Amino acid sequence: MTGTRVVFVQGDITRQSVDAIVNAANSSLLGGGGVDGAIHRRGGPAILAECRALRASRYGKGLPTGQAVATTAGELDARWVIHTVGPVWSAAEDRTALLTSCYRESLRVADELGARTLAFPAVSAGVYRWPMDDAARVAVETVRNTPTAVEEVRFVLFDDRAYGAFAREAGR
């Protein structure tokens, strides 16, 4: 463990009061469904404007899977949104390293920003179909084993199923 406090909350990630909220983004960075759409809707147009600027400069082809980049948080109760692109789950190919990278890279970006509190969703466990128990294992293990100056990582889980999977993983 890195000394980082790990907390589990059932609720809406867009309602969290933290330094940075991690967005389970799609590679376009231009919004979408699930967590991504909710963050863009609640955060307002400033997030989309910065995402468009990133696409026009560094990420013309989109943000690669497993990478992370920060923008303003707009109207959210946070300073930044850290966008990361999770892998789509595959039964034929082990993409665990990419999912692990989402959490490590988000923590790296948070450290660069000076964020002390960070809220994560269950990256890839929604429309990207990553099995929830395994998504929880990867998320919790990675956060526990990644050196960071972040003082509190909050996993914000939308429903009972996700919260239960993460809580079980935390007890291991």
UniProtKB/TrEMBL annotation:
Annotated transmembrane regions: none
Annotated protein name in UniProt: O-acetyl-ADP-ribose deacetylase
Gene3D superfamilies according to UniProt: Leucine Aminopeptidase, subunit E, domain 1 (3.40.220.10)
Organism from which the protein derives: Streptomyces pyxinicus
Cross-referenced PROSITE patterns: MACRO
CDD domains hit by this protein: Macro_OAADPr_deacetylase
Limits of the Macro domain: 1-172
A Pfam family this chain is assigned to: Macro
